[in-house]
Amino acid sequence: MAADKRILALGAVAAVLVLVTGGLWLSKAKSGDEFAQCRKSVVAGGMESFGTPFTLTDENGTRVTDKEVFTEPTLLYFGYTFCPDVCPLDAARNGEVTALLEDKGMSINPVFVSVDPARDTLEVLRSFTDAMHPRMVGLTGSAEEIDAVAKGWRTYYKLNNQDDAENYLVDHMTNTFLVMPGQGTVEFFGRDVTPEDMAARVGCFVEAAG
């Protein structure tokens, strides 16, 4: 009798697990979000509120559009090369994530958008990105172009160059955005995310995209 009760109890637990799992699957299916199992960030307006079409200049002097940049999963970061600490660390982390995913056979595109176009010349930008990862692309443009792109990704920055036109700092946000081809921005990562955790999370999106 006791054995029968245990069998019935185990059967009930299994049935509940099936129902819960099925409910979660149906919930994701109904939401139409193929990345639901990968996403951790929540933001007002949804991820679709991040992004805008653009034309900028890459580190080699070529004018490129957003469609030409986002041809594969892209890690998009806004910073500046004269940054004394945060930007080099974040860019190096993104380069490491790129390398970790390469080891797993996944190709992603690390992109660094300069919010300091006056000092970040093409040569300076190219030297900076090449040091972070051979495939990292640096983008720049006019102050108006950078303003528009930063606004599109809802990222704040402010040049503190009123008193010193050469050795100023730039206040800026430090999120890295994951942009998927044809999908737009699907996730963002804070600077406290480790390379290993970030690689695992980005990998989830890449695999989900097929």
From TrEMBL:
Name of the protein in question: SCO family protein
Top-rank taxon, per record: Bacteria
Naturally occurring in which organism (per UniProt): Paracoccus cavernae
InterPro entries reported in the protein's UniProt record: SCO1/SenC (IPR003782), Thioredoxin-like_sf (IPR036249)
CDD domains: SCO
Family statement: Belongs to the SCO1/2 family.
